[in-house]
Design brief:
The chain is α/β, with parallel strands linked by helices. The protein contains 5 helices and 9 strands. The N and C termini lie far apart (52 Å).
Length: 246
């Protein structure tokens, strides 16, 4: 804890009001910086002697639409939960979750006011410590964040992955194109408004003698989560099924 406190003090002293947030989360120091300050802060985190974060270990995108909310509230689930799941439109009731928009339309708004973020995990070999850096895109409809590939080369494929899955544009990236989805894929599958069943499916067409795309034929549905309830029929039983009363 002393090392974490020391790093917090160094960050606060070095960056001041450039830090939107400075806290310890999940056992690591985490900072948030504005998109306009991202590159300057990252250069200093790499080069300044008190930081020396030589390695970028990971970079990922996050979609905060409906953050902290869920389709299912299992603590209040009733025996009518199955019909509630079957009748849910397109699998997710975005209106109930506090956001607006429909599948395939990129106008979903987050209930927190900021939807897309880029999160970077840094490692200092010199000081043997880690740091998490978060930046939010200013525009939900067209999220743009500066690339850090010229600061850490390892960011190249990570930024392509975040672009592919979340649609975050990393400005200045030397080769920003899809890396996981197929050629011609439409949409970004890790966005909260993307249907779990997808938009298209592929199959082999024997007449054309090739693989073709077609609209997805799976009917959207929500599976009812498993809810553990007390049942007096099974109370007092041993794991083997034998009664504790002998």
């Amino acid at each position: 804890m002393e090392e974490l406190k020391k790093l917090q003090e160094q960050l606060a002293s070095a960056f001041g009001d450039r830090l939107v947030e400075l806290q310890v989360a999940f056992g690591e120091v985490q900072i948030e910086v504005k998109p306009a300050d991202l590159r300057d802060v990252m250069f200093e985190l790499r080069d300044r002697e008190e930081f020396r974060f030589e390695q970028m270990m990971d970079l990922c995108g996050v979609d905060y639409a409906a953050y902290g909310k869920g389709e299912w509230i299992t603590e209040e689930a009733s025996f009518r939960g199955f019909s509630r799941g079957v009748n849910a439109e397109d699998g997710v009731n975005f209106g109930r979750l506090g956001i607006t928009g429909v599948y395939g339309v990129h106008n979903v708004r987050t209930n927190t006011g900021r939807r897309f973020a880029s999160v970077v995990q840094l490692l200092s070999l010199t000081h043997n410590r880690r740091l998490r850096v978060k930046t939010y895109a200013e525009d939900d409809d067209f999220p743009v964040i500066d690339s850090i590939t010229d600061i850490w080369n390892s960011a190249n494929w990570f930024e392509r992955e975040a672009f592919d899955l979340f649609g975050i544009i990393y400005e200045g990236h030397p080769d920003l194109r899809r890396i996981l989805t197929d050629y011609g894929f439409v949409g970004h599958p890790f966005r909260k408004d993307f249907p779990l069943i997808g938009n298209v499916e592929v199959r082999y067409d024997p007449d054309r003698e090739r693989v073709i795309y077609q609209p997805v034929t799976i009917k959207p549905r929500v599976l009812v989560p498993r809810v553990v309830r007390r049942d007096n029929r099974y109370e007092g039983l041993k794991p083997s099924g034998e009664s504790t009363n002998g």
